[in-house]
Amino acid sequence: MNIIDKPDSATTAPLKLYDQEFNSRLLLGTAGYPSPQIMSAAAGSARAEILTVSLRRENVREKSGQKFIELISTLNVKLLPNTAGCNTVKEAVTTAEMARELFDTPWIKLEVIANNDTLQPDLLGLLGAARVLSRDGFKVLPYCTEDLSIAEKLLEAGCEVLMPWGAPIGTGRGLRNPDALKTMRAYFPDTPLIIDAGLGAPSHATQAMEMGFDAVLLNTAVAKAQDPVQMARAFADATDAGRIAYLAGLMEPRDMAMPSTPVPGTPFI
Prior knowledge:
Layout: H1 9-12, E1 15-17, E2 20-22, E3 26-29, H2 36-45, E4 50-54, H3 66-73, E5 78-82, H4 89-103, E6 107-110, H5 123-135, E7 139-144, H6 148-156, E8 163-164, H7 178-187, E9 194-196, H8 202-210, E10 215-218, H9 220-223, H10 228-248
Parallel strand pairs: 3-4, 3-10, 4-5, 6-7, 7-8, 9-10
Antiparallel strand pairs: 1-2
């Protein structure tokens, strides 16, 4: 094997979230696809190992939506239920408890929404729900902003992962506040950080990974693409490329030009 073909252990190191390891650093949502079959194909194309699912797809009492659960189970992925649409601590906690019963998992993507137009997280409500759920044995992945004080309190509440937004959900605007996100990454060097929401193009995923974030989570950019399966593949490759670039070490930007070919020794006529 040529040296260039040898796998880099740092590059291939798994993503560790709570007590589990994953090879993929792209988490994918399951809402809004043209059909369950296209969703399934996109998940495979994305090489995703974690899929988020909203409890709204299911009905705990009637066990409806069983076909969706059966389809997901064939993909051999980890389900990450979410509390999408919840506006209060009580709603989020109740939804998480129902999700644990239905999907048989203590993992929960915690959302508490403050504003239904911007879908901005309610940071105080998020913190309150995180405290309750963590005490109850849940493994909480909170959808938050880049606010450092709330992030610290979420970690103190028992969260071992943080998921700051790149931009409001579904906007596709990419990383709206990259400087603050870089600060967050530097402030929590040992905490898994996943960019969640607002990514619209594969280049946005690459940018997040080049900044040192551990993974990205997206839904709309793939589900609403003209070809969701190919777009899922594009995001998977972009995520991998960003991770490799981060580990390889990006050059520092310069204010002045610098020749790539040394000037001393250049023949002049």
